[in-house]
Amino acid sequence: MSKRIAGPEIERLVQLLAKVPGLGPRSARRAALHLIKKKEQLFVPLTAAMGEAVEKVRVCSTCGNVDTSDPCTICTDPRREDATLIVVEDVADLWALERAAAMNVRYHVLGGTLSPLDGVGPDDLNIKTLIARVASGVVSEVILAVNATVEGQTTAHYITDQLSSFEVKVTRLAHGVPVGGELDYLDEGTLTAALKSRTAF
Ligand SMILES: [Zn+2]
What we know:
Blueprint: H1 8-17, H2 25-37, H3 39-56, E1 58-59, E2 66-67, H4 73-76, E3 81-88, H5 91-100, E4 105-109, H6 127-135, E5 141-144, H7 150-162, E6 169-172, H8 188-196
Parallel strand pairs: 3-4, 3-5, 5-6
Antiparallel strand pairs: 1-2
Helix pairs in contact: 1-2
The chain binds zinc ion.
Zinc ion binds next to helix 4.
């Protein structure tokens, strides 16, 4: 066992910070020390912000997004197009698409992917609520923005099947050459997918 260099409160803080994605034990120590040094400017306001977020954070019952209100900010935004729904696996994907700011539409967060081996079935994901939203009739296109993994594609196929009886266009993201990508560096799977989904110039 390594020698303890700080009291149990600081050790606990470091241990918890080390569980934050992107921070390992070393970065957690640096972060903890930084917070302690910047007690008034950072540590106190951060603690207050965390306390408030813990109190208010909830899952949107419409789309599965996380926010401090239900329905969430995106679901209640009147400037968004109702007819297009982007389906994502995780809130992180929603945030990534929003950062790209390519479309001003609504979302649906599945909360994972179908994975029979891990015991994840359709009832474990927000698929029923997705079907209910499509059944309400306002949606004309569902964009399946799931990951290009086996589980992601299995989930996309399942959802496409479930939506086949509705008057709705189901599309998926293109697979292929990334922007700024060089062909020489791409794997065979990506190159094959890019060739198959080629478009007219
Ligand atoms: Zn929502």
